[in-house]
Amino acid sequence: MRVPLSWLREYVDLPATETGRDVQAKLISAGLEVETVEQLGADLKGPLVVGQVLTIEELEGFKKPIRFCTVDVGTANGTGEPQEIVCGARNFAVGDKVVVVLPGAVLPGNFAIAARKTYGKTSHGMICSGDELGMGDDGSGGIIVLPPEIEVGTDAIELLQLVDEVLDIAVTPDRGYCLSLRGIAREAAIAYGLPLRDPALLDVPAPNAFGYPVQVGDPAGCDRFTARTVTGLDPEARSPIWLRRRLQKAGMRPISLAVDITNYVMLELGQPLHAYDRSRVQGAIGVRRAEQGEKLTTLDGVKRTLDAEDLVITDDRGPIGLAGVMGGANTEIDDTEGTTTEVVVEAAHFDAISIARTARRHKLASEASKRFERGVDPQAASAAAQRTVDLLVLLAGGTADAGVTEAIAPFAPHTITIPANHPDKVAGVDYGRETVVRRLQQVGCDVYGQDELIVTVPSWRPDLTDPNDLAEEVIRLEGYENLPSTLPKPPAGLGLTGRQRLHRRIGRALAGAGYVEALNYPFIGEHVFDQFGLAADDPKRKVVKLVNPLSDEEPALRTTLLPGLLGALRRNDGRGSHDLALFETGLVFHPQRELRVAGRLPVDRRPTDEEIASLTAALPFQPRHAAVVLAGAREQAGWWGKGRPADWADAVEAARILAREAGTELLVRSGQYGPWHPGRCAELAVLVDGTEKVIGYAGELHPGVLKTLGLAPRTCAMELDLDALEEASAGLPKGPKISTFPVATQDVALVVSREIPHADVEAALREGAGELLESIRLFDVYESEQLGEDKKSLAYALRFRATDRTLTVDEASAARDAAVALAAERTGAVLRGA
Prior knowledge:
Elements: E1 2-4, H1 5-8, H2 20-29, E2 33-40, E3 48-59, E4 66-72, E5 83-87, E6 97-101, E7 106-107, E8 111-112, E9 116-118, E10 121-123, E11 126-127, E12 145-146, H3 156-159, E13 164-170, H4 181-192, E14 214-216, E15 222-231, H5 241-249, H6 257-269, E16 274-277, E17 285-289, E18 295-297, E19 303-305, E20 311-315, E21 318-322, E22 326-327, E23 343-350, H7 352-361, H8 367-372, H9 381-396, E24 399-408, E25 415-419, H10 422-427, H11 433-442, E26 446-448, E27 452-456, H12 467-478, H13 498-512, E28 516-517, E29 523-524, H14 527-532, E30 556-557, H15 562-574, E31 580-587, H16 609-618, E32 624-631, E33 633-635, E34 644-645, H17 648-662, E35 667-670, E36 676-688, E37 691-701, H18 703-709, E38 716-721, H19 722-727, E39 744-753, H20 758-769, E40 773-782, E41 791-800, H21 809-827, E42 830-831
Parallel strand pairs: 14-17, 28-31
Antiparallel strand pairs: 1-13, 2-13, 3-4, 3-6, 4-5, 6-11, 6-12, 7-8, 9-10, 15-23, 15-24, 16-23, 17-20, 18-19, 20-21, 21-22, 25-27, 26-27, 29-30, 31-32, 32-38, 33-34, 35-36, 36-37, 37-38, 39-41, 39-42, 40-41
């Protein structure tokens, strides 16, 4: 919201010495986000005057049209003689009043003006456009042509209000009332302790039966609709300079008088309005939900297909506007034709959620929808309509029709009961009842009671719904900077939880292994499950959907980390980084079997264990996962060697790294799931209370998935459940016992069936070897016709060591033979060559 300081002063008598920076500081202290203060005309220096074009000579022989003009500037040039000026613009004629900058002046951008010879003539100044004066877009795109009644020689700096300060305020969603000069003025008046001249306090005639007919078919979507009619408008009337300049300073482009007035009143009171050309409206104006598939061409020229949830404005032909968002082209006031003499003014109040969803559904954000979805004062509709009618009568010579239409759904003021000392408990400051009542009255509340206050919330503050909201108003107006800073006193000796320590160890371990952490938004679209090839009944398809998502394309919370990581991988690959190894640890979200409503926790005391448990039970199940993705080279080529690409084994090794950090034995075996290649996918499992539990998968992704997602060939990934890994953990990993005695190494080569997993063979060898076994490593896999078509040879290096003696050859051989015997019993393994 852009707020010109000169406009703000109309409603609050700010001290004359107060600058925009001073007002900015006050509003920031009151809790508003004033981002910048723009100094308009700070580097502008006159003389800048109104002139009248006397003659125009067309200069020939140049690549573009050039005109040599003489302009009467009165006595501003010191001589009274016509000023000779060269100009290339074409949108003015002899007799027009224009803005002339004379030699010695400085325009915005430190552009000094001096007499200079150009196109064979000497130009003594410039005829100015709006852009050259820093006025912004006025819609003309050329020289400023002023109304004929303005006198020659008038100071154009004052006439065009070129010097001003504009506060640029970022209005948060809960402060919709601040999207108006009325709302900002109220905050400024409170901050300075000055009275407010409320522009909404107007004499409004009572509704009667003579107004334009209106039929509201959906009172829940539109609880108030005011219609006023103005006739006898001068179709040639144009917006005066002061109106156009205020719109420009507020960031809006002047269009036509009727539209400019509705925009002006919207900025002034915060109530969006719409003006219809009465001659183009057929029958009564209605408000209803659209029929599925109905068509409407909006003012931006786009033909839109409506949804059954869209709220529309209609006449006898059908939809003529998208309620609260944008009007329709078929009832537009067309300024180019200059034929509109009768206008119907609409000032309505629409449901905020409905308008927000419609604007998002059609990707059509407007100034009106921005206000409605944040909350508009329903009681301001009648005043806004009256203000619009008054300006149309004043500026366009119209006559206000006696008919006044108001369709109002029954409503009751919102009241809140609050203990008088509630803000004190929230803030930890002793404000006292008198201060609490005074501050609540300043924001517009009616307050009754002593120890227990009954507060009636003003209509322009729909964000005030409970006692904590009222407490926040008291605290912010008393000043956040006045709150005492008190450090919490947590009990000593707790430190990080086991889950937190594991999370940090895993991050350090993966970073040490060459992975780069990539943090992604926890939002996904359900189409990703189809891209991953997940079964229709896969648990990952059951998602928690957001009521108000940031993006309609990603309305759900993630059940897997891979979509975000693979998206980051694709973006980096597309920008030239082809050798990538990324990881992420974060929460995934699964809906609870029973949907519960979360209670609101107190803020004046510590919640009880039961209250916390009740809140937790209403939240989605949120396990912590870890995932990695790899593409390109895992080891770079160079003078030291060829390097190698990342493959499925690297993804499996990443899972082993996590298991080692958790102090858990990871079971790795062949698997098949979702986006992974069916022949290059490892299933990851752990033992929990003696039962195997699958916690994730690792390997190379399916070629079809890679093609669908636009990823590099042979991309690999791993994802597992960290909480399940921690559950299987024996606690913090213990350092190995270092033996001073030598190691005894025994190699065995076992021939097994090709379908037997290496993990099963290794598990049998490890168990059979007993406590003397220090480590086991598979160093060769061999297949040949000599072994048989369905056979393979697995070669293992077994390391034996005792902590208290040097092992003999017989002891090491006996341990090896015991390991081979158990492997033969469980897997049918046979010593190769035996």
